[in-house]
Amino acid sequence: MGIGNWELLIMKKLFCVLLCLCLILGCATPQKEGPSVQHGFSTALGGLGYLLLSPIQIAAGLLEGIASLPYYLSTQLQTINQGLVNAQADITLDNTYESAYGKHLSEVPQSGNTGVVFFNMKQATQFFQQVLKQYGISDSEHYILTNIDESSGEYSLLAVIYRSVETIEVIDKYDGKTIHSFSIDERLFYEPYLKDTKGNTLDTIIDWAALSKESIQTQKAQAILITLAANSVLNEKRTPEYWEIEKRWLAGEARDVIKQRSEDIKKRMGVN
What average pLDDT score do residues 190-195 get? Predict the structure, then answer.
C-alpha cells in the first residue's frame, strides 16, 4: 500500500525529530509502572492503564491520529505536551486547553480535569471547532466529530469529518430506504454519511478510531482526542477506508474492528 500525501507531509515534519530521539533514547521501551487511569478496557486494549509512552511513541501517535488516544492516557499531560512540541505538532495540549477551556496547561492539575467535559458529539464538535478557529482555520465550522455506538453501548466508532453544509438529507444507514433530514441541532447529524439523497458525495473522512466509550469520558482523554483530531486536519490526513469499516461495524463486527485496529496501532507505535 502506498503512502498518502498526508503521511508524507507529517513524516517529513517528524523525521528529524524522531532521528534525534532515536539517537538519544535508542529503542526505548515503554515503562510499565504508575497508577491506572482506566478500568474495564476490552481485551484488545488491556493493560493500557499502566502504559507510559516514550517521546518516540508520543511522536508516532501523532502520525496515527485519534486511534492512538488510549495509549496516551497514563502518560502525564506535561510529558505528552512536550512530546508534541518536540514532534513539531501544529496544535499541542496547551493550545487545546487554552482554546477550548480557557486554561493554560500550567494551570491544569495532572488529572487534566478543570470541570469541563462533553457528553455528546455536538458538544465535542463545538470544542473542536474552537481549537481550529483559534489556530486560524477559516472554515472551522465545517469540521465535525462524529460517532456511531456499537449495539452494546460500550464502544464507539469515532470519525473526524469535513462537511460543507449545515443541513443534510440522507438515506437511513440501517434500513437503506427511509429519507431523513438533519440539522446541526440533531444527534444523527453527528454521524458520517457518504452521500446525500441526490447521490452527491457528502462527507470527507479525515481520521477515525474504534474506542471504548469509557476511554473518552475524562477531560484529559477528551483534550487529547481534540488535539489529535485537530492535528489530523492540519496534516491533511484522509482515511477513505472508513466507509468499509463502518459497514463492518453496522454488521455486528465491532469487536473485530476494535481488535484489528488496536493491534495495528500498537505495532505502528512500537507498543508491546
Answer: 98
